[in-house]
Amino acid sequence: MAAALFQQALQAAGQHLDGWRVESAGTWAAKGRPPQPEAIRAMKRRGLDISAHRSRTLDASLLSAFRLILTMEPGQKEAIQVEFPGIASRVFLLSEMAGESKPVVDPIGKSPDEYEKTAKEIERLLHAGWNTIFQKAASGD
């Protein structure tokens, strides 16, 4: 959901997607799984189709291609920094971009309302952290 919402925000801001590479991968995700139906519906309400997305696991080659890596939960951030210390300085919580330090809790297995709450929280954090995201992505630190 976060990757789709970020791409939507980039388009709404008139940013050319050519210069941006926005991808999603999980620290503990099983490879090849489709999004939860509740996530698909929450994104569809926003005009986004994530039904073709398939999960994948992070690896060093994927991470090395990014100047900025945003995670939803502190455990994800810590796991990436420990497993890939060479890119540790590029890993942040999404909430840190908005001057906060709190998780965006994964709604998997919860009600459709929880997916909607999570989507709204991601949108809020993207909006609040927009300038910081751009600064960190441009500088790589």
Number of strands: 2
Oligomeric state of the chains in view: single chain
Strand order of the largest sheet: 1-2
Q: What's the Cα radius of gyration?
A: 14 Å
Percent of residues in helices comes to 40-55%
What's the average pLDDT? Answer: 92
How many domains is the backbone divided into? 1
Any low-confidence stretches, pLDDT <50, length ≥5?
Answer: none
Q: In CATH terms, what is the architecture?
A: 3-Layer(aba) Sandwich
Structural class: mainly alpha
Strand content: under 5%
Distance between the termini: 25 Å
CATH evolutionary superfamily: Response regulator
Note the total helix count. 5
Major sheet: 2 strands, parallel
Order of helices and strands: HHHEHEH
CATH class: Alpha Beta
CATH fold topology: Rossmann fold
Shape annotation: globular
